[in-house]
Design a protein that fits this description.
This protein is mainly α. It has helices at about 1-10, 15-25, 30-40, 40-45, 70-110, 120-155, 165-185, 200-215, 220-225, 230-245, 250-255, 275-285, 295-300, 305-315, 330-335, 355-380, 420-435, 450-455, 465-475, 480-490, 495-525, 530-540, 545-555, 570-580, 590-595; strands at about 260-265, 290-295, 340-345, 385-395, 410-415, 565, 600, 610, 620. α16 links the parallel β3 and β4 (about 385-395). It is extended and about 115 Å long. The structure holds adenosine-5'-triphosphate. The site of adenosine-5'-triphosphate has 18 residues, from α12, α17 and α21.
Length: about 625
């Protein structure tokens, strides 16, 4: 022992005790303990005099050299007590560490549950590492259990009190323990959460994001998505934009391609660009909310603010939804697609003028916004997260050409107006499905005939089944026939105009129902409330006549000149309504409406059904009187 000490030239005499301790352990063949303590040996030998003298605090290193056998025994006993204390600390710490690792293992297992590891070689490596750590912990625990048994045996033979020494040593040990904890944490790369935001985690999250996008493939059905008549546009977007986004990142890497960054949707006002962009955007970005900004909203009157707004748009994507936060969500936050919708794009991306003289300071500010978009879309600035920008405009010719080059708004798709009968039917269907399915539309194949043909007779009594059966025969149009009829009447209407038709028709039905309800409410203040509600409910049904008036209303509000020709009196009334705004209202035209087919007249609280002997034939008098054809000039 002495030779050993001299050769190492320990500074403190207490160092000898450490060496003694090491030798004793070796003697007992506790190799693991030697190796464990050796990592912190230098720290301990400087700060922890293990064997302190009870009275004067001097070190007890001399014990090794004293010849008294009783002192030797005492010291040994103290050492054992001390060692046991340390052992307990170590056990506690390892239990803590094990808990951390188990938690981590659990989260790792959840993380990779139900996932294939084909595209995640990094995760496989991590799994292997975790398994080996788990085994190591189990082995350590077994060893420690053995050690504890040994100590317990030793304890039984040594009953001397060493509290004072232990207390002093405890304080020191606590400090050392903390230090050791820190050291071990530093050494053990898996003991903190931050390592999960490694490239592995991001790669996994990218694959996960691609899987989520791929799952939406079957949903590319215009009408099911609430977009009518744009199947071709949707198919093109699916091929050019969705396919690369849904492909596994590893395959894209092998192909050497990247998904497109920008899509420009252009077309006439009200043709469904914004609707389409929002719908598609939600499909592409299931994990993260969309960012929707309109051009004028972004352009700030303060110089420099617009550019700042724009930068923040790209650099600060909204965080992913909670269900997609895997392992803290940081990997997914970096990897999930961020979709930005830029409406009225021409307001922020006009062709640059080149000099201040061309348009003053405002023009210079606008130019710098364009420059900012250029750099964000495909410049030196690398974006933090994968981003897809969908821009919409009805004036594509104003957009700066640099923005339209491949690599920026590479995919440019025209959203055309509904030019065919089928397209108009599709749009009308999107907006009328609900009223048809709930039986609020007066057609012969309504799923809820009770609602359609309910009502009251002249004596203000609810109609019975036979009455209703008679009325049923009066309804000659099926839902599809009605859509075709309306579609033919709405030639030249845009998607927005078509969507306004059911809205305008429903307002008429509601007006009738609410006025009937209020009159009935006045008359029967004291009772029969349930019946009043039933009457109002029965009468809130959209009729064919409501829809016809709605077509006229919408056509007029859009400054569309439709000349309706109808040989019947109903059509002459219809022509007259085209020139005036209010005479088509239900109150003023009740006498005319009694002559029209399929009309429920609610005058005097009575419902009179006029047989619908034929449809109102309406023809366009002259092609030239249609609204000016949409400019379908493509870029
Ligand atoms: N193809 C369509 N299918 C269903 N609804 C449509 C369609 N086109 C338009 N609409 C209806 O018209 C409304 C307005 O459409 P949207 O805002 O998408 O038009 P837009 O082309 O963006 O017009 P703008 O260029 O003036 O902004 C939509 O909310 C929707 O109700």
């Amino acid at each position: 022992v002495l030779v050993f000490l001299q050769s190492h030239q320990y500074r403190h005499t207490s160092s000898s005790t450490v060496v003694v301790q090491a030798l004793l352990i070796q003697r007992q063949q506790r190799h693991r303990h030697v190796s464990l303590s050796s990592s912190s040996l230098s720290k301990q030998q400087q700060r922890t005099p293990l064997f302190l003298d009870n009275n004067n605090g001097s070190t007890a290193s001399s014990s090794s050299s004293t010849s008294s056998s009783s002192t030797q025994k005492e010291k040994e006993q103290e050492w054992i007590e001390n060692r046991k204390e340390m052992k307990n600390k170590q056990l506690e710490w390892e239990r803590k560490l094990k808990g951390n690792k188990e938690r981590k293992l659990l989260s790792q297992n959840n993380f990779s549950q139900n996932k294939e590891d084909v595209h995640r070689p990094g995760i496989l490596k991590k799994k292997k590492k975790i398994n080996s750590i788990q085994k190591e912990i189990l082995n350590n625990n077994n060893d420690q259990e053995d050690d504890n048994d040994d100590y317990d045996k030793e304890d039984k033979t040594n009953n001397k009190d060493g509290n004072n020494i232990n207390n002093k040593n405890k304080e020191e040990d606590n400090n050392d323990d903390n230090d050791e904890d820190d050291d071990m944490d530093d050494d053990d790369s898996t003991s903190t959460c931050t390592h999960f935001v490694s490239t592995d985690a991001v790669t996994f999250a990218q694959a996960h994001s691609a899987e989520l996008i791929a799952l939406t493939g079957s949903k590319f059905n215009g009408e099911a998505l609430g977009v009518g008549g744009l199947e071709e546009v949707i198919t093109e977007i699916k091929r050019r934009v969705w396919t690369p986004l849904a492909a596994p990142p590893s395959v894209l890497q092998e192909l050497g391609v990247t998904p497109v960054r920008g899509v420009l949707l252009y077309g006439h006002s009200g043709c469904g660009k914004t609707l389409l962009a929002r719908t598609i955007g939600k499909l592409f970005s299931p994990a993260r909310p969309l960012t929707v900004v309109s051009g004028p909203q972004l352009m700030d009157k303060f110089v420099g603010s617009s550019e700042k707004n724009l930068r923040e748009l790209f650099d600060n994507p909204p965080p992913v939804y909670d269900p997609y936060r895997i392992s803290g969500g940081r990997g997914m936050d970096k990897a999930a697609l961020h979709v930005i919708l830029l409406d009225e794009f021409d307001a922020m991306a006009r062709t640059r003028s080149g000099s201040e003289s061309d348009g003053g300071a405002a023009s210079v500010a606008r130019d710098s916004v364009v420059n900012q978009i250029l750099s964000k879309m495909d410049g030196v600035d690398l974006l933090e997260v994968p981003t897809l920008v969908i821009a919409m405009t009805n004036r594509p010719s104003l957009i700066d050409p640099a923005l339209l080059r491949p690599g920026r708004f590479e995919v440019q798709i025209e959203v055309p107006p509904p030019s065919s009968r089928q397209q108009r039917i599709s749009i009308l269907n999107v907006h009328m499905t609900s009223m048809q399915q709930t039986g609020r539309l007066k057609v012969s194949d309504s799923p809820n005939n009770n609602n359609i043909i309910g009502g009251v007779n002249n004596n203000n009594n609810l109609l019975n089944k036979e009455d209703n059966d008679d009325r049923m025969e009066e309804l000659v149009m099926t839902y599809h026939e009605l859509l075709t009829y309306l579609s033919d009447r709405c030639e030249g209407y845009s998607g927005a105009q078509l969507s306004a038709i059911p809205r305008a028709a429903a307002s008429r039905a509601l007006e009738r129902a609410v006025s009937l309800y209020s009159v009935d409410l006045d008359a029967n203040k004291n009772g029969n409330k349930g019946r009043q509600e039933a009457v109002a409910m029965f009468d809130c049904v959209v009729t064919i006549e409501d829809l016809e008036y709605a077509v006229d209303d919408v056509g007029r509000s859009a400054a569309t000149t439709l000349v309706l020709q109808n040989s019947s009196s109903s059509c002459s009334s219809s022509s007259s309504t085209t020139s005036t705004t209010n005479d088509s209202s239900s109150s003023s035209s009740s006498s005319k409406r009694q002559q029209q087919p399929g009309v429920i007249d609610s005058t005097d609280n009575d419902v009179v059904i006029v047989p619908n002997n034929g449809r109102k034939e309406i023809e366009l008098e002259d092609e030239e009187l249609l609204p000016p054809p949409h400019d379908t000039t493509k870029r």
